[in-house]
Amino acid sequence: TQYFLDRIEAGKHWNAYLDVSAHLSLDQASKADKIIASGKAGKLTGIPVAHKDVFVTRGWKSTAASKMLEGYQSPFDATVVSNLGIPDELNPNGAGMVCLGKTNMDEFAMGSSNENSAYGPVLNPWNSEYVAGGSSGGSAAAVAAGLAPIATGTDTGGSIRQPAAFCGLTGIKPSYGRVSRYGMIAYASSLDQAGPMGKTAEDCALLLSAMSSHDPRDSTSLADSGEDYGRYLTQSWIKDSANSAKPLEGLRVGLPKEFFAEGLALEVANAVNAAAKALQQLGAELIEVSLPKTKLSIPVYYVLAPAEASSNLSRFDGVRYGHRANEYRDLSDMYKKSRTEGFGAEVKRRILVGTYVLCHGYYDAYYLQAQKIRRIIAADFQAAFEKCDVILGPVAPDVAWRLGEKSKDPVQMYLEDIYTLSTNLAGLPAMSVPCGFNTSNLPIGMQLIGNYFSEARLLQVAHQYQ
Ligand code: GLN
């Protein structure tokens, strides 16, 4: 813990952390030491972890990188935080990990570059002139720069996978419902899902196993969410297969033709194709599949996510939660000034879009239409999974971009999410796995998508590849 606290101090320029309290971390570390001394240590006891600032935590501030929640202290821990934390009366089953602090992010998890944080952008540790990706950019930079061994993130439309790809990490967004959303500051509740970001699939499997649980406080939490996601890691795809040189024999990898079409950078396409060849060498069979509605995932997501966000963010009114303006004439002036001052530009844009698509006259044309296409997108995946076991593609159309390069044009930024949004719309598990570098030495990530509840199998494929 002390080693990582020193690294965090020396690595402040990346802007990966929003709140660090060394005494709290060291206090947890000494509790972990006692658990170890008593012989009751689990696999993760005493290992430090960094939490995205979207998870509320006792002790550390919880702001979701917004001025709206500046200085906010939660009286309770998110389920993810307590599942991973030091056991106490409130959470006797905590994994015993030590919290290193809270990581920077796009405000309320809205963004793809971490430039929407009210506390400044995160710099990419591979090249500080480039973005770290978003919205879990702080978690990604923290792990990539060695300021944490592993971190938590959330993924509503790519926010674990894309920063992991931009920073050369492995990350997994589990099936919707695997990990409790209790205490996770809500963005778009039907899409939000938490997951681990680490160096390897093995690390992610360990963290995910401890993070996930059935939680009666989240009505969308799955009843059976308590697996060992690492159970297949070292096995071959076909159990007890004799061919040890081809551990992935029997695995059918689907390559969606829409993921390799126009708009994909050549260097990314080459790296992902090389990864496909590597899987083939391990025994997998490559099959072309089709996800015909891929392009529509952008308009569908950017109707549904803002719609849900506009509703979720109504609680930040300066009364129930959030910043309150100093001077105001009456109640409605107070709401108006508080929200004007507290929210950043992108958050305001999404609230406006969300209330617009939900309003009476437009509901059928936008919101309802988007919900219908969402169902078709989910059905397209099921058709693809008749032909293959996992889907392979890029995480993003290109590597990280230069800071500021896409900030002026929000639509330009939204288009970067083309390969990640559809899995959230369908609720499927998907992961990001490093698969090389471009000529400027920036990391490239490949994406593996599985059918519902196939996390352990996805991690197995990633592990065999790594
Ligand atoms: N980039 C997407 C957005 O801005 C996804 C963000 C996320 O997954 N939290 O909404």
From TrEMBL:
Reactions catalysed, as given in the entry: L-glutamyl-tRNA(Gln) + L-glutamine + ATP + H2O = L-glutaminyl-tRNA(Gln) + L-glutamate + ADP + phosphate + H(+)
Catalytic residues, chain numbering: 52, 135, 159
Keywords, comma-separated and alphabetical: ATP-binding, Ligase, Nucleotide-binding, Protein biosynthesis
An MF annotation (GO) of this entry: glutaminyl-tRNA synthase (glutamine-hydrolyzing) activity
Keyword Acyltransferase: no
Enzyme Commission no: 6.3.5.7
Family annotation (InterPro entries): Amidase, Amidase_CS, Amidase_dom, AS_sf, GatA
Domain Amidase positions: 1-459
Keyword Nucleotide-binding carried by entry: yes
Gene Ontology BP term (one): translation
Transmembrane regions listed in the UniProt entry: none
GO cellular component annotations of the record: glutamyl-tRNA(Gln) amidotransferase complex
PANTHER family linked to this entry: GLUTAMYL-TRNA(GLN) AMIDOTRANSFERASE SUBUNIT A, TRANSAMIDASE
Family: Belongs to the amidase family. GatA subfamily.
Subunit composition and interactions: Heterotrimer of A, B and C subunits.
Known function: Allows the formation of correctly charged Gln-tRNA(Gln) through the transamidation of misacylated Glu-tRNA(Gln) in organisms which lack glutaminyl-tRNA synthetase. The reaction takes place in the presence of glutamine and ATP through an activated gamma-phospho-Glu-tRNA(Gln).
NCBIfam families tied to this protein: gatA
Protein name: Glutamyl-tRNA(Gln) amidotransferase subunit A
Species the sequence originates in: Polynucleobacter duraquae
Lineage start: Bacteria, Pseudomonadati, Pseudomonadota, Betaproteobacteria, Burkholderiales
